[in-house]
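Dissemination and training. As part of the outreach component of the grant, students in the summer workshop were shown how a complex can be specified as a set of sequence lines and then modelled as a single object. The example used during the hands-on session is reproduced here so that future cohorts can follow it. Participants entered these lines:
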Amino acid sequence: MARSTAQSKLRDRLCSIYKDILVVNNISLAEEVAKMLTVNYRHLIHACDTEVAKINVKQETPVDHGEIICFSIYSGSEADFGGGKSCIWVDVLDGGGKEILNKFAEFFQDSSIKKVWHNYSFDCHVIQNYGFKVSGFHADTMHMARLWDSSRRWVGGYSLEALTGDKGVMFGAKLDHEKDLIGKVSMTTIFGLQKLKKDGSMGKMITIDPVDVLQRDERIPWICYSVLDARSTLMLYESLKSHLSNMPWNLDGVPVLRKNMYDFYQQYWRPFGELLIKMESEGMLVDQLYLKEIEKVAKAEQEAAVNRFRKWASRYCPDAKYMNVGSDAQLRVLLFGGTLNRKNPVEAIPSERIFKTPNVDKVIEEGKKAPSKFRDIKLNSIGYNLNVEMYTPSGWPSVSGDALKVLAGKVSAEYDFIDACDMVLDDEDGNPSQSEVLPVEIDKSAYGTAFSAFPTEEEGKEACHAIAALCEVCSIDSLISNFILPLQGDNIAGKDHRVHCSININTETGRLSARRPNLQNQPALEKDRYKIRQAFIAAPGNSLIVADYGQLELRILAHLANCKSMLEAFEAGGDFHSRTAMNMYPYIREAVEKKEVLLEWHPQPGEEKPPVPLLKDAFASERRKAKMLNFSIAYGKTPVGLSKDWKVSVKEARRTVDLWYNDRKEVLKWQEERKKEACETQCVHTLLGRARRFPKIDPAFSYHKGHIERAAINTPVQGSAADVAMCAMLQISNNKKLKKLGWKLLLQVHDEVILEGPTESAEVAKAIVVECMSKPFNGKNFLKVGLSVDAKCAQNWYAAK
DNA sequence: ACGGGCCGCGCC
DNA sequence: AAAGGGCGCGGCCCGT
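and obtained this result:
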């Protein structure tokens, strides 16, 4: 173990702040200091930071997890806690545990004492784990930084270290970067130890002791490290406050008088941040027994499908019996061995390759006594050239579900293959092979592109069934490994058996994202073959309310572009996509006008079926295209992409796109304006005035330009929808009646919110939620378009959709 | 054993 | 030459 000289120097510099630190390591001192905070210095802004042990931040939620070992508070240089010391460091580990923490309860709980944090969610949860709620939240520098520049993800990111180390961010600080240590320094930089190699040189492996060990064994650097977090947070806050204050605030394109983006932060994102933490604390109740049940079913179905595929594949490649059908590398060799890389034709998929695979059959390899954990299998190509229609971004043939579906066609995955050894026996006996025995009545249209790659129809047919089975394996596998298993992980749930995902404001557009686990990507109803959403339940006596916006993004687009036709269509109500189709195709309009088809149908009492066909049935393909365009155009999809989806020429796709724009000229104009704005000002804005920045377009990369242009037309739509959803959530959360009835927000999925509360008030609450969402701006809706909201209550997420 | 790249895929 | 925006996450595989 060794320290580099650079590390030693940095540690020396770090320790120079020790003289400013009051170390609080006993109860009576804690009492004294806490009193100064809550009385003498209560008017100051305090940056706080905790250090936490016994938590695996990559896997666990801080709700009900983690132990605070120390915390630090910095209230600016004017505070003096004795002897000119301006920083407080409190030893929770050896200074009194929960008792010492309790001395600061009043400070943390006082709503009039302003506290700033970096990533407040984490600290808030770990402090709340000790039984007192944290109040007086003034700012989260992570969110402020995101609001100031949402595009740092790939260039620096939003860690305290990255932000405070960036001179472009810290411009407000009147400090000398060279002389004063103002930026956070990571734990690895200060405490990381490099293992020495045998020859005495520095190795690459860096180890780091657990934080509680550091606190005891590296006391002074550790104390300084911890305090520096609080100090740099306060300086970051000041800097970002200046930045945001210098950004004018435009609401729906109109300047908000004498207000700037710091005001925006305080008005919207600060309360929103606090709301998200509340939602994280609530968590969702998950029915573990139910998950166990569907896990069994899913695994059985998966195994059946795996066996079908392996049985077929082993005819062409004996070791395929043991292959991992979930490995894209193995599938690639088997199905596409010998194929060249499209981007780099020097590389090819090997026709034969050795893979390591779990030794399930306990095969004892040559020269070994006991079966090893893994063994080698040799996979080879099936030997027929399958048509490659889809490629991965790096140029290899794709083995994704979509690509496999093209190969398989629309055939059933249920098909019983005979064993490879049976085939061999038949051949050896000179008996007719299977293909000649079976009736050869084949409807070729159902089979995919794999069919014709094989020498006989029977072989082609079986290949399609086998690949269909493979598709099924993949889809079941993804349901099991992405949803069914993670939701049962014991690291996921808190003490209350509820799942507390973290809900983050961390996207470039302002949408939320969810992690550990991601509850925003649970299977949609149609694809949810195991009804996973049924596992999300309300507690006994409670119900869930699930409320979602109808065509939120399209409505936003209609508003932003001020598109007459779209606004009228929404005004008229009914099926928006049908109306789009009618406006695109004159013959559909004619049919509607002649009352040969109905735009939509509201059954009258006694009416069994509509008097004339519905548009969506009579012109199904036109409506499908219209619907697809409605969704695609806001994302910036091009005729080239659409031509692939629709399997038509680019020219044909372009004509259809033109039909869509025909009565929506304003949209085209608006999109051109956004592209121009992005190009000229490197910025576009959302409804509430949040900006998204873009880098200057580098003419050397035209793809770059395309991406920026698409993001420029999408961000105002997606971001404004996020703004609306946020406002709605704030309305819901501030609603006194809902609060009194005991209804709480649990989750947001972009245009959908989920609440839980007492069943007896579910209907009343539902009506309030709908009202809040329909009028999300302080009880009003200033948009040129109405907001439609659909809401249901039920015992679980599946039933409430 | 762990981290990162790649692929693929779930959602809106 | 490629051509839909925004996410998180799991498995595999290869590097250290």
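Residues 564-663 of chain A form one domain. Students were then asked to discuss how this feature might be tested experimentally.
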